[in-house]
Specification:
- It is globular and about 115 Å long.
- Strands 1, 2, 3, 4, 5, 6, 7, 8 and 9 form a 9-stranded mixed sheet that branches. The protein has a 6-stranded antiparallel beta barrel with strand order 13-16-20-19-18-22.
- With about 850 residues, it is an alpha+beta fold.
- It has 27 helices and 35 strands.
- It starts with a helix and ends with a helix.
- Helix content is about 40%, strand content about 25%.
- Helix 8 packs across helix 12, helix 12 packs antiparallel against helix 14 and helix 22 packs parallel to helix 24.
Length: about 850
């Protein structure tokens, strides 16, 4: 049975049992930034199991793409994989243990025809019900094994949630395949047994204290690895001998020129590049991009580990893209996203492989040198600072360094490496933090009450001064012309956060006014209003009116809502791989960083701009909703991976139906029409796989439009043409200019070549070699080379040295005919010595070299020296 046949039979079987077939979800967990990658079929069903969303059916079945990072360094042996497919059937408050066991036993023994005597089962220690059910289905008591919580109990995803015991079905390869012990059973790791299917009986809820209570409606969550069951059905005990991996291993053998099965070391390397080539294809197809953190780091680590082991097979040129190509071809029928994104996948793999190849050899040499040091050999441990240098300078993931070191018997000081990483992160953070005085202010706020933000609905609020920070110390009052930081009980001022800059404005009483120049958030949700007293004095406890600069806030709100629309448009135009990498929202402009491999084309930029402006013209309502974090994720709201959120979050939505929904605490317009107009002003690269778009909206866009129109009108007058024809007129002028330049260059060359006959009179004999060394009139370097070529053709056998002054700098060309090159004369050596007299240098091939200098006053001396140089030779 092929893997395709098993997958099809499984889904068909459970469809016949009343299950609704649901498609595989992405490897990027939808709406769950706490989870790195999809690790099981139940990930997309979590909202149903937790009661946060209604399932399409109470019985569901799927074949889910999965990825687990725990086994990366084990990939290469006969069993471990990072990417795999998981067959699963699920009950959301419908059936329970009896049906789950019945379905599994019927599918394995009847549909697949696996002999019952080859099957063992394991159950949780006190799950007598499951034991009885297996006995009733004919499993002998001696082949039912009770195991503890570590093996047969699935805990909650997190510190609390649904959980329950599980029962596993294992395949027995026979006593000859194991340790030979009489008590060998599925808990033994000798290789005799292979887990086929895990049936999880989700019947409890565990709270944060670890207390478990029974669920009113228990659920079923099962998982069976497609690759494992395929191996069993194809009569092998390793997934790499199945039809899934045989074509990939054949491709690896073709690329390396080696035969799989001839040598264990090369076999392991071929298994690694086959598995990793397959895994990276699926990751990239689902939108993961190489980076130095999160799931992007997992991808980069796989790619670089694959390159490293490819080198052990003698593969120097990019090869992983060929492995990815083979994986795409094999799975494209089942997973069309592979075919649809084929070019993009291969491009990402090729670029990343080429980039790492540039530093790999140097890094390996340095690692060898580190391990050869006496102090390192004495401890057999690589210091964290060395491992960090390999990571930071040469792109070696720490896991690769550790794997190479381990193979040679060395350890790596991981703790010290992490300390180096922490120092680097702190440097990066400090570049974005407020200055030292403000940081000290944060420490001074320890006793202040939290500031309540009231600025979503209004821009003015009556409040009181809860604290004053003056000269980095807590103060009681502040007077005119003094700079200070004010802490208010309530504030309409938005503190800089999430890429949005802080508000400015006024804090006033009848007799005093404080100009707020910036607003920042300190530890403990305390808002600090930075600025100075314009008049009067203020004291702790004073009742004040806080007024935000309304016009500036409106500009910021336009730009912030526009970033949400821009994010949504980019994902539609470029693909789901687009992830926000950062943003800056100011009054005058917005900046949005995102993951994407290449620069956007003019067409793509136009589509994005038009899509955003279309949503602006629709005047969609913009509204927020406060809800539990998990409920927000279940609703489909976008959250940033690795961002820390509280239990309750604010979801900012645009439109009904929803055009965009993101977890966001910033300030926004009430309707998209307030944005006015959106215009992209720039698109650029800010690093490998990261792009940046800069844009303007509202008043900023109006100013840009006015400036552009004024410029077009000015140019139209200057060029005596209509504004809409300016572009054509400029192109015509440029074309005309280019023609005149070509004519001038041709004329210059013609005049210069007429000097050839005059230059021939400078030929001298130097030790039997004809030498022509002369200074010519200034011209282009290309013309000087043409003159040298013409002289060489005329003389037949000669050394020609020409010099000229170009922009007050000496410039030289040397040519040596082939017969003299054969006698040992080298144009590069001649020009280096000649140009050195003018303070310069040069180089090139034996037959032709060029160079320059700094001191033009020594040009004639340098040319005259050539005769002496040849005499010396």
């Amino acid at each position: 049975m092929t893997d395709d046949e098993i997958r099809s039979q499984y889904l068909s079987f459970f469809s016949g049992k009343g299950h609704q077939i649901i498609p595989s979800s992405s490897l990027i967990p939808r709406g769950d930034p706490t989870l790195l990658l999809t690790t099981a079929g139940m990930v997309q069903l979590k909202p149903y199991f937790m009661g946060l969303a209604k399932p399409p059916h109470t019985r569901l079945t799927s074949c889910q793409k999965c990825f687990r990072t725990t086994d990366i360094e084990s990939v290469g042996d006969s069993s471990h994989l990072t990417f795999f497919e998981m067959l699963g059937n699920f009950s959301v408050g419908d059936y329970f243990k009896t049906e789950a066991i019945d379905f599994a036993w019927e599918f394995i023994t009847v549909k697949l025809g696996i002999p019952k005597e080859k099957l063992w089962t394991t159950v949780y220690l006190d799950d007598d019900e499951a034991i009885q059910l297996w006995l009733e289905r004919g499993v002998p008591a001696e082949r039912i094994v009770r195991l503890g919580e570590e093996d047969n109990f699935w805990g909650p995803a997190g510190d609390s949630g649904p959980c329950g015991p599980c029962s596993e079905i294992h395949y027995d390869f026979g006593e000859a395949s194991g340790c030979g012990k009489a008590d060998c059973n599925p808990s033994c790791k000798c290789g005799r047994f292979c887990e086929i299917w895990n049936l999880v009986f989700v019947q409890y809820h565990q709270d944060k204290a670890g207390k478990r209570t029974s669920l009113s409606k228990p659920n079923i969550d099962t998982g069976m690895g497609l690759e494992r069951i395929t191996a069993i059905m194809q009569g092998t005990n390793t997934v790499y001998n199945t039809g899934i991996f045989r074509p990939l291993l054949r491709r690896a053998a073709e690329l390396s020129g080696m035969c799989y099965g001839a040598d264990e070391e090369s076999d392991r390397a071929m298994r690694i590049i086959s598995e990793h080539g397959r895994a990276v294809s699926f990751l990239i197809a689902d939108g993961v991009m190489p980076s130095n953190d999160g799931r992007g780091y997992v991808l980069r680590r796989l790619l670089r580990r694959g390159v490293l082991f490819g080198r052990r097979l003698g593969l120097e040129t990019p090869f992983l893209l060929h492995m990815a190509e083979a994986a795409i071809e094999q799975s494209r029928a089942i997973y069309p996203e592979l075919a649809n994104r084929r070019s993009f996948i291969l491009d990402v793999v090729r670029r990343e492989e080429e980039h790492f190849a540039e530093t790999l050899n140097t890094g390996l040499v340095i690692l060898d040198e580190i391990m050869a040091r006496d102090d390192v050999k004495m401890q057999m441990c690589i210091a964290g600072e060395f491992a960090f240098k390999l990571y930071d300078t040469y792109g070696f993931p720490i896991e690769i360094t550790r794997e190479i070191a381990s193979a040679r018997g060395y350890k790596v000081d991981i703790d010290a490496f992490e300390r180096e990483m922490d120092r680097q992160r702190e440097k990066a953070r400090s570049a974005h933090k407020f200055d030292g005085a403000e940081q000290q202010s944060a420490e001074l706020c320890g006793d202040f009450e939290q500031t309540r933000f009231v600025g979503y609905k209004g821009l003015s609020a009556s409040t009181r001064i809860a604290g004053i920070i003056l000269d980095n110390e807590n103060g009681n009052s502040v007077k005119a012309e003094q700079k200070a930081g004010l802490v208010l009980a309530d504030t309409p001022f938005y503190a800089e956060m999430g890429g949005q800059v802080g508000d400015t404005g006024l804090i006033v009483t009848e007799n005093a006014s404080f100009i707020v120049t910036n607003t920042v958030r300190l530890a403990g949700n305390i808002t600090l209003h930075q600025g100075y007293v314009a008049e009067g004095s203020l004291a702790v406890g004073d009742v004040v009116t806080a007024e935000v600069d309304a016009e500036r806030r409106a500009d910021i709100a336009r730009n912030h809502t526009a970033t949400h629309l821009l994010h949504a448009a980019l994902r539609k135009v470029l693909g789901e791989h687009v992830q926000q990498g950062g943003s800056l929202v100011e009054p005058l402009r917005l900046r949005f960083d995102f993951s994407h491999l290449s620069s956007l084309t003019a067409s793509e930029l136009s589509q994005v701009r038009d899509m955003v402006n279309s949503e602006v013209r629709c005047n969609h309502p913009v509204y927020d909703c406060i809800m539990p974090y998990k409920e927000a994720l279940a609703s489909g709201a976008t959250a940033l991976f690795d961002e820390k959120y509280g239990d309750v979050v604010r979801v900012l939505s645009v439109g009904r139906p929803v055009v965009s929904a993101e977890l966001c605490g910033g300030t926004h317009v009430a309707a998209t029409g307030e944005i006015g107009f959106f215009e992209i002003t720039g698109e650029s690269s800010i690093g490998a796989g990261l792009r940046r778009i800069e844009a303007v909206t509202g008043r900023g866009a109006a100013r840009l439009a006015a400036s552009s129109i004024a410029m077009a009108q000015s140019l139209s007058k200057l060029l005596d043409t209509a504004p809409e024809d300016v572009g054509d007129k400029v192109q015509a002028l440029i074309a005309g200019r280019d023609q005149e330049i070509k004519r001038a260059e041709a004329l210059e060359r013609e005049i210069a070549l007429k000097e050839v006959s005059v230059l021939l009179t400078h030929v001298r004999d130097a030790e039997g070699v004809r030498l022509l060394a002369a200074r010519v009139k200034p011209s282009r370097p290309e013309t000087l080379r043409d003159i040298a070529d013409a002289l060489r053709n005329k003389l037949g056998s000669a050394i020609i040295v020409l010099g000229m002054a170009q922009e007050d700098k000496p410039y030289f060309v040397v040519t040596v005919t082939d017969d003299l090159v054969a006698k040992g004369y080298h144009a590069g050596n001649i020009i280096r010595q000649t140009a050195a007299i003018t303070g310069g240098g040069g180089g090139g091939k034996p037959g032709m070299s060029q160079g320059g200098g700094k001191d033009v006053s020594k040009l004639d001396e340098a040319i005259a020296s050539v005769y002496g140089l040849l005499k010396q030779k």
